[in-house]
Amino acid sequence: MTVLILTSEEDVTADLVVLRLNEAGVPVVRLDPADLTTRVALSGEYVQGICHGHLSVADRLVSMSGLRSVWVRRPGLPAARAAQPSAWLTEEASQALYGMLRCTDARWMNHPDAARRARHKPWQLRLAQRSGLPVPATLITTFPQAAREFSERFPDLVVKPVSGAHPQEPPRAVPTSRVAPDTDFAAVAFGPTLLQRRVPKLADIRLTAVGDRLFAARKTVEPDADPDDVDVRFSPSLSPWNPVEVPPRVATAVHAYLSGAELAYGAFDFAEDADGIWWFLECNQSGQFGFVEMDTGQPIADAIARWLASAPDGTPAPSGGTRRSAL
Amino acid sequence: MTVLILTSEEDVTADLVVLRLNEAGVPVVRLDPADLTTRVALSGEYVQGICHGHLSVADRLVSMSGLRSVWVRRPGLPAARAAQPSAWLTEEASQALYGMLRCTDARWMNHPDAARRARHKPWQLRLAQRSGLPVPATLITTFPQAAREFSERFPDLVVKPVSGAHPQEPPRAVPTSRVAPDTDFAAVAFGPTLLQRRVPKLADIRLTAVGDRLFAARKTVEPDADPDDVDVRFSPSLSPWNPVEVPPRVATAVHAYLSGAELAYGAFDFAEDADGIWWFLECNQSGQFGFVEMDTGQPIADAIARWLASAPDGTPAPSGGTRRSAL
After folding, report:
1. Chain A within 8 Å of B61 (Cβ-Cβ)?
2. What is the pLDDT of residue B318?
3. What's the pTM value of the predicted model, to 2 decimals?
4. Residue B242 touches partner A, C-beta closer than 8 Å
5. What positions does the domain MvdD-like pre-ATP grasp occupy (chains A, B) (predicted)?
6. Which of A285, B22, B155, B236 gets the highest tally of CB atoms within 10 A of its CB?
7. How many other C-beta atoms can be found within 10 angstroms of the C-beta atom of residue B271?
8. Would you tell me which residues 105-144 of chain A have a C-beta closer than 8 angstroms to some C-beta of chain B?
9. ipTM reported for the complex, 2 dp
């Protein structure tokens, strides 16, 4: 049974996971859907009620029924590197590849449907509430009057995009920033705006979930930090990420979130306040983990390799490899 | 409890359903997401574990918690008609609108996740096989050699796109056509190609499923029809669509398909052969039904209105309208 990794060639984080799977003797096929019709070929046959599918990568042939798991890491746009790329060819290649992979019994990290749903911020906030995670008061609105009333109730606000990254080429992350006290919010009418009570934070928390395993890391906010530096991704802080224990109530809520979202992987961002409460900010279903592993030494790549290698019921892979014990 | 219909203003088929809902006294809000930030506004608040959402259309305010059902008919691209449209604004508006609607308990026809998944042809074929529908032998491939071998086993083939419509502006349907006997299939290497055994058909069947209700219509192939006219959408036939009974085995299989696909609506295309077998060609989760209703008189719009108006458990709407009995 083979692990399929969909990602670009330059993805060095994926290299870490591939290395561990190789050490464990678990067969791995790594491909970039951008290479479809050049380095990558596919075929699926439906005859007399039976379906057979194959993938070929650099002349290596893999049966789709032999796929143990699929890791959707950083896949390129299907057929983007074809001799004559086009929107039509990308659509055809995407439907063929993902349509066939959807027919397999492989486990997904993460399934494309779950991944797509999990990107919706309003849905994230609601699921976090329902899962028992503390969510800072939030408003998403195109009504200037609603924004004004919200800012009266919660005078210290941050603003962030509803959707995450700006869809330019390459996509650019839009930072969260503080709302000035004299803002009049008239511009809210021109586009949905996400306003959130600013959590005065002592630390940022990044919790990486891999299946049932949780790895939390904490980055202290420096005492003289500028309160306008609300977005840890853009803050000039030099303090490292340190491993931190996950409070049991948070762990229970995070498991409920992942189960409700049908996600096998998630990178949660929290803000820790002076009372030690972890406030849910977001869960990125494809969040990076390399920087956390580098700072903390937490074995996240190893956990991903184990998850990908394990059987559908979660037991370790009955691999034929002699070095299986490495996992 | 309100029915929300997402579609364009020009959608006359939706008018039929709105008319029936109005007659039954069921509140309806119809909006085009393209009108977001101009005619349409939205707001969602997440405070202390509770979520409240509102939509406003032409100054009419609707609570999202009061939505009974959502009919995704022919919605425009979110914020496409904004004063300054952009890919970024569309993404923000789309995430805000669909993200909030995903938080409601409304029933969907069809849910966006189910709709997206249902467009994958390879997945359709597999689900049809699993549901017990006869599927003509099919190959989807980028291997010329696989195509050649397939054409030796099944010499009479048609070719059609994997993905359906060509993504130009406006999208254009690509007809299914016959494969010439001397085709060498070298070009298959440049893009996934769907080859399918041609079913020598006596009739085309369009089966429209609305919840549990099935409406089948049959269009006879004229005896002197050109066998190269394989695609009913492009055939010059003048024979009308006539109502036809659904064979019990087909009905069971179609219900299994809809349940597996989590679809509340589906338009199935079959080819009927000389033995009376209905061969599954595809299921379009947003297929048109107006032309069938016009020819056959089958009450499809009425069935959609009833489905949208019914409570989550399928019982008719406890509407306050005095003309409820009209449904």
Report:
1. no
2. 47
3. 0.91
4. no
5. 2-113
6. A285
7. 22
8. 113, 116-117, 119-123, 125-126, 129, 135, 137-143
9. 0.89
